DNA sequence: AAAAGACCCAACCGCTATACA
DNA sequence: GTGTATAGCGGTTGGGTCTTT
């Protein structure tokens, strides 16, 4: 199939938008709403192609866009999710769902121009989030886990897209959402809170760490208090997944480790795989996170061993580095 | 002060997915 | 089932700005 161009390129303006053009576009959208992008430039009196107008609105003019410096919290979220999603499709869109009022384009730019370089300077491979000198875990299991998690995130996004479509019946005359994967806080589906659940698990693990072991609970059966927290978190994550209507096992291949099938678990099994030996959910390793300060530090071994610093310590250290980097 | 290089980010390109006639 | 329009997405670029020499 030969695709026709989205617009006649001859005579159309390209490059930076002028304030006058922005004003025309804004005025037109205020009056008529957005949509029908192909016809919009003519109606709005703009010498631009529809796609250019759509991108200008989506990435810049939309009133619900936050501009300016990224907060540390936002940067932490980006790095965490980038580690989780790797090169999976839709990763920038997925990350954007966790950052209120930020566009995927802005996040992508911030990653490419700031965060990636900072990680490189810290000796961390920004693609794999592993240390370049091999200080941290480079196991196949960890890499496979990242891929595993990325597959899950892709499946989740597909489910979200379906939900969005189903919740926008044709009877609704409002224009469709600008980006199906962008939600305000109030409209964000529950399943998008998996990151929060994951952070809760990390906190739970760290809490256990402080209770029992100078290194981590993950080497030992957690103390009763930590077990309770973990069990609670485990069911919470399962609940989140169930609320999304995502069927985990049939949608992703089984996880293989040294010839042993590791499949069949829910996402919480993935998350909690190494968190608790006594919880009965240790089928899969958690996402690999590099740990600072210990040449032998590992995270993500099946069977549950995290040595060295806790995960939150890792993130705190990383963020401190980012702050230091900014100050430098 | 001026030139050169580095940095930043808005905007574009090309592709795929989806909706619809 | 097919073709077309539109939307969404990641990768890349170009030019303005900042920093260094």
TrEMBL record:
Protein name: Uncharacterized protein
UniProt entry tagged with the keyword Repeat: yes
GO molecular function: transcription cis-regulatory region binding
Compartment(s): Nucleus
Keyword field: DNA-binding, Nucleus, Repeat, Transcription, Transcription regulation
A Pfam entry, by short name: Myb_DNA-binding
Record-linked Gene3D superfamilies: Homeodomain-like
InterPro entries named in the record: Homeodomain-like_sf, Myb_dom, Myb_TF_plants, SANT/Myb
Entry GO CC: nucleus
Occurrences of domain Myb-like (ranges): 9-61, 62-115
BP GO terms, sorted: regulation of primary metabolic process; response to other organism
Family matches, as SMART domains: SANT
SUPFAM superfamilies xrefs: Homeodomain-like
Region (Disordered): 167-186
Organism: Linum trigynum
This protein's record includes keyword Repeat: yes
Subunit structure of this chain's protein: Can form complexes with MYC2, MYC3 or MYC4.
HTH myb-type domain ranges (all copies): 9-65, 66-119
Main localization (coarse): nucleus
